[in-house]
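User: Some background: our group keeps a shared notebook of sequences we're curious about, and every so often someone picks one and asks for a predicted structure to add to the entry. Today it's my turn. The entry only has the sequence so far, pasted here. Could you supply the structure so I can complete it?
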Amino acid sequence: MAELGKHLRTIQILSLLLLVFANTCYSKKKLIELDEDNWQDMLRGEWMVEFFAPWCPACKLLQPIWKDFASWSDDLGIYVGQVDVTTSPGLSGRFMVTALPTIFHIKDGVFRQYRGPRDKDEFMSFIEEKKWQALEEIPAWKSPSSIQMSIVAQFFKLSMFLRGVHTSLVEEYGIPHWGSYFIFAIATILIGAILGLILVCFVDFIYSVRTTPMPPEPVIKDMSLSGIEEEEDLIEDRKKGAESQSEDGNENAEEECASEGEGTEKEEEEAVAAAATASAGEIEENASGASGGEQSEPEMVGAPEESTDSSSPTVRKRRARKTD
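Assistant: Of course. Here's the predicted structure to add to the notebook entry:
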């Protein structure tokens, strides 16, 4: 009986081990590993996907719960997957994963981020009660299947590649960190210079194609420095000619005015001389009459006063008329 009891205990232990092994294999089979090659499978059907990293403490705590939840995927009619961001950095950039762990619900290519409690019951109720319908969809411009997010994924891949190069330079080749950074700086400058040269050549090609109809050569010659200088010389000559003509006109006018002034002065002198000769003749006549007799004295006393008053204006006018 004792031996029979030992055999029964051995059988029970073996059966329990088989159940545990089968359960483990079943759960592993239901948990789908996603990477850069098969991530597009989640665009068909309904999925719950976890983004994790092996070094993340929160991810380690969630790992057994997530596997248990994956074992119910057939009953729930969904697929359960996970993405290791250390081996698939492009997917972390495509989904813009900024914290770990991050869980997404995908339904026929429509993405929603799960932000509820992280336990199996909540996960199951989230699917059974369709609580995901209350969540906001990720905008189309941030959709992981869009072109712009594909470009972002390539940048994430490049960053991880450069990080791997830095690690290999430091650990395998023994280069110090500052030496690795210096190498990256030189490489960045060289790549930037090459890309800048390519861009300049491309722009020059486009610009030359658009400006093929060049202006005619005669216009270019006229607009040269020699043509401009000739035009300036012509303008200066015209200005000088106009100034010389105006100066000649002014001189002629001054000469005419001077000649007119001289003529008037001569006429005035001639008039004064004629008046003087007339007054002298009258004085002589008066003197001759006085010598002829005393009877004529009363008459001559008044006569000289009238005739000798040559300073009055009336006398001057009469004399001037006579001379004329």
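Suggested note for the entry: Residues 225-292 form the longest helix (68 residues). The mean pLDDT is 76.
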